[in-house]
Model the fold of this input.
Amino acid sequence: MPSLFQTILHGRLTGLLVLGAVIAVLPLFLPNNFYLDIAILAGFNAVVCVGLNLLIGYAGQISLGHAGFFGIGAYASGVLAGNYGWPPVLALLAGAVFVGLLAFAVAKPILRLKGHYLAMATLGIGIIVSIVLRTESGLTGGPDGMTVEPFRIFGFELYGEKTWYWVVGALLVAVVWLSLNLIDSPMGRALRAVHGSEVAAEVVGVDTARFKAAVFVLSAVFASVAGSLFAHYAGLITPAKADFFKSIELVTMVVFGGMASTFGAVVGAVVLTLLPQALTVFQDYQQIVLGAILMATMVFMPKGLLPTLAALLPARRRA
Amino acid sequence: MNMRTDPELSLDAAPVARRDGPPLLRVEHLSREFGGVLAIGDLSFTVAAGDIHSIIGPNGAGKTTLFNLVTGVYKPSGGRVLFDGADVSGQAPYRLAARGMSRTFQNLQIFFNMTALENVMVGRHLHLNTRLLPALFRFPSLVRKDSEARDRAAALMAEVGLSKYLDADAASMPYGALKRLEIARALAAEPKLLLLDEPAAGLNATESREIDAVIKKVAAGGVTIVLVEHDMKMVMGISHKITALNHGRKLAEGTPAEVAANPEVVAAYLGAAP
Done:
């Protein structure tokens, strides 16, 4: 019998059902809106991380600029729906299309780079986005940020933690489903082949530049959609959501949870969203304890949380 | 191509019948230099369709550079490569793969982040729907063809004697099995021309004979083969034609018997005084 962890790691639909079940029963154990709020933030982070994991964990390319794409999505919704009165759905789609085009435009030149150079280039994109958001204060409100209209669709207004919890939960399940589908497909294998050996992928016909660009665009669009919805949920956005530290946090979540594991990315995002909250009991030493936990995890679990836990369990089987 | 029959390896050494077809690969005045050093210089030769054509030469003769030039991994400094009637000089490897060229590597290039079967399935890339939207939403046609590709990859693994490694992680497989895995992956693309870069290097005598049998079976299935190999027993036993290189230039060319008798080839290998 494959264990629960094995099922989550390797089973496609069973893992999805487990995730759906956890999301469905979780509110019963959350005493108030404060905890719901944390769960929602974890959900948004998880959506971005599942996309980022396709790029980092599966295709083996690094991005230190994904908070920039999250930020563009957030501000596209804030500006277009707020200042220009667009329907929020259109603003969200416009943001996603813009991010997709931007990611596509920068993908071809930068994804030819490898290792440190790719990291530097993506870092640069994130920093440029962050600077633009800070300085274009006429549109974005500058460093103080801007308020965002509530999300309205077909006359309904999404309001309150309870509603948003289900919206984000459904989005996360959808994104995980898409990610699992992609990985278990010819394109998904091509992406993993790019990670394994670019030259070997090329000689069996994989246009590696095209697939690297495609997964970069896809992960950027996931981040943008999450950013748009986050903006409507939070009602207030600041450039800090798009800056370098946020990008690093997202990459850390992916690596911490376990690279090349969709559910690992979810677990990483959830744990690293909760951990700072749980560590507030350490008061002044909170950051030190957090850093120590991260270091210990990477030293003793170099493959990340979920794959390491799964490997500890007996009866290893593939779905 | 008849790839599915006879899953057991036959180890007899019967020579492959020579077909002597029209040229499939033509290399014309090819040269490549690295920082002023000539790795390949003014090299011309022709590979006939259906042949097993070996490239031999001492270490550093330019054999692997030649492979990299022909398969598009390097761009030539001069000269042309014609494949199946078209000038393909300097084309990217993935474009050449689409034209029907595939290869293996001297230093293994395995996807260690996948299972053995998935490695071979990547070889089916050109024959599958690799677009994003059908993958994201799991179109039924994509799923069906993917499951066919899985069966076909498993059959190819049986063909090269890797049945027991179907679901093994590639990272856990022994060296000799990985050599054969590369051949299975290259064959999954259904190439017209297969370039094998030292398929027997690092193998023991038994494994070498198994590779020998695999190559002959692939050739018998209609795939033209260009072989770089140091195992002279294998080269002399299975080649229709041999091109000998030294210092990036052609030293001799002919049947195994002709090349073996050529005094310059003997001198290049043994280092006799000029």
